[in-house]
TrEMBL record:
Family of this protein: Belongs to the GerABKC lipoprotein family.
Chain ranges of the Spore germination GerAC-like C-terminal domain: 228-397
Keywords: Germination, Lipoprotein, Membrane, Palmitate, Signal
Domain of life: Bacteria
Organism field: Siminovitchia fordii
Topology of this chain in the membrane: Lipid-anchor
Protein name: Germination protein
Amino acid sequence: MRISCSIFAAAFFILLLSGCGERKELETQAFVVAIGLDKAEDDNLVDVTFQIANPQVNTSQTAEAQNEPSSDIVTVTAPDLLAAKELVQTSHSRKVTFAHLETFIVEEDLARSDLFHNIMGSAIVDPEVRRESVMIVSREKASKFIHANKPTMETRPHKYYEFMEKRWEKTGLVPLSNLNIFFHRVDGELFLAIYATTEREEVEKRNEDTYLAGEVPQKSGDPVQMIGSAIIQNRKMIGTLDGEETRLSLLLRRKSLLESMVASFPDPVNKEFRISVRMMRNGNTKVKVDTNREPAKVQVKVPVRLQITSNPGLVSYTMNEEKQKILKQSIKENLERSSLKLIKKMQNEYKGEPFVWYVPARKNFWTVKQFEKYDWEKHFQDADIDVQYDVMIENFGEQIRPPVK
């Protein structure tokens, strides 16, 4: 009996410890936090840049790594990402892993080529590549972007990308852009990717959100600017949207995770100035699509709440109810005019829509084949579209007494 119990106990512990056979020590691994993809000189090859985090920087071992860089940046040329992952091991002593990979940076020239989708499609074969990884399109080469990106406030590169990618929820100046959404909208529908650069072509504009990356007049600070979108359709990049157009695209979607944004509008009373407001969604956007008529009819109603944050023209909106109505109507008309201008641009120039209106349109059909035969993208180009903003102003700034009745 004692021998049987001993054998059973030994077998039990062997089963418990057998899972340690594939154990890998942290110090033996090299964690890639960002990957850059560029066109190589050979049309069928790609330059892959790996930004590998230094695990000692900004940890308890910082004293031992005072003179070490925060990351190691290596570029290799290969047919695809997985082949590049093997090639980089020829010069790197640790096992390269994508377990912490969160960011793909794609050169604009590559994004506009037919090779782009093939490279991205082969990338997700690796089980370590997560579909939540963010996609950024850089105006310059991705390798140059990664080398030039030296943020002053973040010593750990993965934290920089993580914080910057989260900013879209608060500003709306860039879209939610990850591999999962990219592969869902790879054919037909438009996909918006984050547009960024470290190069400068500064342009001063009165409207603060009508910039593209690189145009924002910035005198110092981090070199990277992320603002606007790269438009991707049918597996390649076809154009760009600026910050304002990106914001409107998010507002016109039926559902969006965008929390709030600060925007400015012309002061309707004192036209030399602009009024800044904090804009928030006041519920989901209502989208109705009628596919039983020609042309198709789309009705969109966007509910928004506004808080006046700045009034440089010093117009007494807090004390004058009539001026409040003028301001509210002016903002409503401005939003509707800008939205319709964007929609016309998408219909005439890009022949597609980034507003995800194909979802309510698809509900009008019994089967997917019927919807595909209808060809929503083609019907969108001629659709009759009506956009209305339901504007509610919560407050008009600081006030010391109630408005005059």
